[in-house]
Amino acid sequence: MPPNPPLDPKASLWNLIAVYLRLQREHRGLSGESLGRIIGASKATVSKIENGKDRLNIGHAKLLDAAWETGNPELLEGGLFEWLIFFASLGHRPQWGQEYARFEQASRIIRIFEPSRMTGLLQTPDYARALLAKAGVADPEPVVAERMERKAVLDRAFVTVTLSEAALRWPVGSPAIMREQLAHVLELAERPNIVVHAIPATFDTGAYLGLVL
Question: What's residue 164's pLDDT?
Fold first, then answer.
């Protein structure tokens, strides 16, 4: 099998943890199996963590910090790996879009709320293209293609979409693009596995929960 490509530690804090873990293991002359004994995991799990396929968890981190004495209890509660995981769990993940897409494709029930624009799974190619052009995407075609591929989930999942009136009315692209987009939503709403709700912009509706949260 070809070797796994090296992780970029600048891409995310999780990548940095994986790279640093491997560096520290090799610096101490430990095998993956030896490290596994420290954290109570198999050699295969250690390999997955170091290659970014899995993540070091807080239990592993505490065992590592204790074994490698990475902290000073007189100055700070917890060791280095425990704190790295704490901040990695809070921080932004550049790969969140890819992770979301994987969860979406594996889902059988999807619920979506969108207050401002047409949600991605309901977009037509021209509507998506117009949005991306305004966002300054130089070459929107790969993104449009990926977005259209995601729509395959509409053929097998039960999908409930709640759109605000503003999302339906906000002009994107041109009148022709909007007509096609709204007609597409109506067509999708005819499917037995897709339910589309619209929240009217009236004083009777007022400040509903979706605006508050």
Answer: 92
